[in-house]
Amino acid sequence: MVFFKYSLQDPKLHLPQAGYEAKVKKMDSQLNQYLPVLMLLLVTSGFAVSTLIISVAAGKLGRRTKTKDIPYECGMLPEGEGNSRMSVKFYLVALLFVLFDIEVVFMYPWAVTYKKLLETDATLALGGMLSFMFILLVGYVYALKKRAFDWKS
Amino acid sequence: MEFLQYLSPATQFVLFSALKIFAVFGVVMTAVAYAVLVERKVSAWIQNRVGPNRTAPFFINYLPVIGPFLVRLGIFQPMADGLKFLLKEDFTPNYVRKVYFWIAPAITVIPALMTVAVIPFGSTLGTEKMVIADLNVGILYTFGIVSLGVYGIVLAGYGSNSKYPFLGSIRSSAQMISYEIAMGMSVIPIFLLAGSLNLGDIIRYQAEHGWMILKQPVAFVIFLIAAFAETNRLPFDLPESESELVGGYHTEYSSMKFALFFLGEYANMIASSAMMVTLFCGGWTLPFVTALSTPSSSILIGLLHIGVFFAKMALFMILFIWVRWMLPRFRYDQLMDIGWRRFIPAALINIVVTALVVAFLHD
Questions:
Q1: Do A43 and B90 touch (CB under 8 A)?
Q2: Which of B79, B89, B39, B34 is nearest to B57 (CA)?
C-alpha cells in the first residue's frame, strides 16, 4: 500500500544511500496510516459545514427585531463591554498548563520504552526519570507555595 | 466480493477505510441521538417523571401493539428533535463577531467526532482490522485531538461578545486544560505496563495479563473523573451551569449551531467512554472465554467482539448519565483544588510507584 511510489520509480531520481528505498517505503507506510484520519476529517468537516448551511436554508425565516439583537442577560439591559475583564488567575492557569503539559509529553516516550530500557540500563531508565520528576516537583511545590492553585481568596 | 481482487491494494485500502468511516460515523451519530433520549428517560425515572412518551409519526397507527409501546419509550423523539433543530430560525445577532460565531460550533464538533478514529471497536471482520486508523501513536493522537475541543468553546465565548458566554468559555477552558494534565499523567502507568501507545497493543496486553482497571485502580479513578471534567458533565458543568450562567458558552446560539455544541458534548462522552473501555476494561475482549479474547477469522465472532465493545461502552454512558442526575455541582475553587492539588500529585505518585514495581519485578 504505497501511495507515493512514483518517487521511487522515477529513473531520474538519484538514490544516494543504500537502504534509502527501504527508508522511504517505511516512511510511506507511516504516512499511509494517516490517510483514514484525513478522510475522517473530510467527512466530519463536511458534516459540520453542510448542517450549518442546511439549517440556514431550511430554517424558519424570522424577522430581525430590536430586542433580538440585545445580548441575553436574563431580561436586564446589558451594560458595558461584552467581553469584560477577567481574573489574572486564568492566565496563570494557562501558563502552568503549558509547563506541566510539556512535561507530561516528555514522559510518554519514556513510558513506552521503559521496559526495553530496563534491560539495557536500569539505573538510567529509572534514575533519569526520577530526577526529572524531582525537578518537576520542585516547580510544582513552588507554584503551590505561591498559592497559584488557591482560588478561594 | 470477486471484484475486490482486481483492485489495487491502495484502492482497497481507501475503499475499506471509507466504509469503516461511514459505518462508525453513522453509529456515533445514532448513538448521540439516542444517548440524549436515554438521558431524558433516565433523568425522568430518577426524578419520578415520565419523560418523552408521545412523539409518534403518522404510520404508527398501523402497528397494533408494538407501535404505542415504541411511542411510550420515546423511540421517535430523537428524529423529531433533529428535524426541529434544522427547521428552527437560525439567528445571528448583530453584536456578535460573525466569523468566530459561525466557526465555533464546527470547531467543537469536528474534534469530538475525530477522536474515535484510533479506537479499536472490534477485533477483525474477515481480514479487516476494526479500527479506522491503526496509528502507532494511538492515544497521543486522541489527546491531541481532544485538546482542540477547547478552541471551539473559547471561540464561542469570545465570538458571542456577551457576558455569560464569555464567563462560561473562560471557566471552561481553564477547567479543561487543568484536567487534561491529570488525564495525561494518569494513563502513563498503562504505557509503563503495556509498553506501547497503540490501543490494539494495550488491548492485547490486557487480554493476556488482566484488565488495567484491576492493576491501576488509581489511574482509572483519576481518568474517569478527569473525563467528566473534560466533557463538562455535571459534577464539573461550571461552563454551562444553568443556574448562574444561563447556558454558558452557547447562550447566544440557536438552531443547528446550538445542536452542534450539544452533539459535540455527547460525541465527547462517547469517545471518552470508548477510551475508558479500551484503556481500562479490556476493549472488545472478555476474560475467561478464549474465543472472545483472541481475534478470529469468523465473521460471527468478529461481530460478537463489536457487540461486547458496545455493551461496555453503553455501561459507561449510563454511568455518565446517572452521575449527572445524582451529584450537585462543584464550586470553582473546589474544582481547581481537585485538579491541581489532588490529582496531579496522585498521578505522579502513581507513575513512580508503577515504575518502581515494574523495575523490581522485571529482573
A1: no
A2: B79
**CB-CB: which of B114, B174, B191 is closest to A93?**
B174
Mean pLDDT for B27-44 is 90
Nearest Cβ partner of A62 from B18, B91, B358? B91
Location of C-alpha cell 451594560: A79
pLDDT grade for B58, boundaries at 50, 70 and 90: confident
Q: Report how far residue B325's alpha carbon sits from residue B131's, in angstroms, rounded to the nearest whole number.
A: 33
Please indicate, yes or no, if residue B87 is contained in any of the structural domains.
no
The answer to whether B16 faces chain A, any CB pair under 8 Å, is no
pLDDT digits (tens, 9 = 90+) for B152-166: 888 888 888 888 888
Domain assignment present for B143: yes
Which residues fall within 8 angstroms of residue A17, CB to CB, at 6 or more apart?
none
- Asked if the C-beta of B166 comes within 8 angstroms of chain A's C-beta atoms, the answer is yes
Give domain status of residue B53, yes or no.
no
B59 neighbors B70 (Cβ within 8 angstroms): no
Which among B91, B133, B181 has CB closest to A68?
Answer: B91
Burial class (CB in 10 A: 0-12, 13-18, 19+), A8: middle
* Residue-wise pLDDT tens digits, B177-189: 888 888 989 999 9
Phi (first) and psi of residue B236, to 5 degrees: -120, 30
**CA B100 to mean position of chain CA atoms:** 25
Of B290, B296, B264, which is closest to residue B148 (Cα–Cα)? B264
Counting one residue from chain A and one from chain B, the pairs whose CB atoms sit within 8 A come to 220
Listed by start position, the domains of chain A span: 88-145
Which residues from B are below 8 Å from A115, CB to CB? 192, 195, 358, 362
In a domain, B46, yes or no: no
Three-class secondary structure of residue A42 per DSSP: helix
In 3D space, the residue among A146, A7, A16, A114 whose CA is nearest the CA of residue B352 turns out to be A114
**Which among B25, B23, B31, B26 is positioned nearest to B266, based on CA atoms?**
B31
Domain count along chain B: 1
Residue found by looking up cell 428533535 in the block: B81
pTM score = 0.87
Contacts of A1 (CB under 8 A, 6+ apart): A29, A32, B9, B10, B13
**Cβ atoms of residues A92 and B176 within 8 Å:** no
